[in-house]
Amino acid sequence: MEPAILAAYDRPVPRYTSYPTAAQFDSSIGPEQHAGWLGDLKGGEAALYLHVPFCRQLCWYCACHTMAMRREGTLDSYAAALERELKLLARTAPDFIVGSVQWGGGTPTQMGAGRLRAVGHLVDSLFDRRCDAEVSMEVDPRHCDEATVEAMAALGVTRVSVGVQDFDEMVQRAINRAQSFETTLATLERVRRAGMTKINVDLVYGLPHQTIETLTRTLDLALALVPDRFAVFGYAHVPWMKPHQKLIPNETLPDAALRSAMAMLVSERLVDGGYVWIGLDHYARPTDKLARAAANGRLQRNFQGYVADGSPWVVGIGASAISSLPGGVSQNVVDPAEYMAAMERSGFATARGFAVGSEDRLRGDVIGQLMCGYTADIGETCRKYGAEPDAFLAEIDGLAPLVRDGLVSFDGERLAVTDRGRPLVRSVCAAFDRYYTATEGRHARGI
């Protein structure tokens, strides 16, 4: 990527797992609005997301809402809070159908086998679930014993997402995550023997002390694990939001040019390895349903990344969990202790959100098309929402520079991201974000 392009577009930009993004959420949205939006599902389908904000230890690179937690009493209390929220959800939206289930975190398996079974069985007793619904769970391969695997199998887990990040020992020390290839492989063999054969592997580029050479070796080892999918994220260094990231000195991080080279290396190695590049940061085997959804124009993006689910709606359960519903987006209180206290009371733990209007739906649709398929039919999308294309485009000040810099092509109706622009698709989307400002401290950098 040319230095001039790097300089122009290496700025803070959202990841666009929603629109409007979480930066626009405010406290005007609370439990009553959330309950009303849940009621709007009216027997429709939605994905169910359960968030467990605990890990065995804290990795310094992590920007998730999580903390180190081993106290049995706290884990018991959190499981009980999840159960209370699930029962409240069943009373509020009794007819909705669970299209998929995802356990995320943190590390959901930190709950322990018994608590996982109790919460998972409650889900099945309260809600109707599609017979082909995928059930996925994030796993730390360093802490996944036979009892945990047995519990996952009992809950019908069909897909396991394994965190790797990087296999280089120096990088691992710098991010406080010692994890050998042998340990990772042993865990994958364990879950595969239990019948959970759909495997995702998560990697990160842009980490401290990471080089082209170390990343190449990590990619080779990761390919040897033979997963169905890869998710490869650019490290988001946001120490103003996550104070533990201050343990990673800025001078140990690769610059924008090296990050760009790393991103291209990831794409080249994984595509050469037989995977299809999907969206910004996912790779899948051609036979995987994510790749099929991308090929058929059914790919979607939400707070869990790229998904092949049929419904655009997500119901989030747990501390910090985000729901995307017909009326808007809502998020539970982030602090686990506050969440547990809220669930001791009679209502939901919703702390903030955003009521989505028709113009937000229009812009979100365009952004979703660009993030998932790298093209957007502006004319057709505007007409879908009753908007005049010329008037809509007149408000998009950032479109002309994108065309000038060769990142997109536009024929007056259809916008297409070029190969040159693909690594910068978040910046392309930002042109359609009426709330976006390139303010330091709000988002991770775009490269």
Can you walk through the features of this model?
By secondary structure, the chain is α/β, with parallel strands linked by helices. It has two domains: 20-355, Alpha-Beta Barrel (TIM Barrel); 358-430, Arc Repressor Mutant, subunit A, CATH 1.10.10. 37% of the residues lie in helices and 21% in strands. It contains 16 helices and 19 strands. The chain has helices spanning 3-9, 31-39, 72-92, 113-126, 146-154, 169-175, 181-193, 212-224, 256-272, 289-295, 336-344, 358-373, 378-384, 389-394, 399-404, 425-430; strands spanning 45-52, 54-55, 67-68, 97-105, 128-139, 159-165, 198-205, 229-234, 276-278, 282-284, 300-302, 305-307, 314-317, 322-325, 328-332, 350-355, 375-377, 408-410, 414-417. A nine-stranded mixed sheet has the order 9-10-8-7-6-5-4-1-13, sandwiched between helices. Strands 14-15-16 form a three-stranded antiparallel sheet, covered by helices on one side. Strand 5, helix 5 and strand 6 (159-165) form a beta-alpha-beta unit. It is globular. It starts with a helix and ends in a 17-residue tail after the last helix. The mean pLDDT is 94.
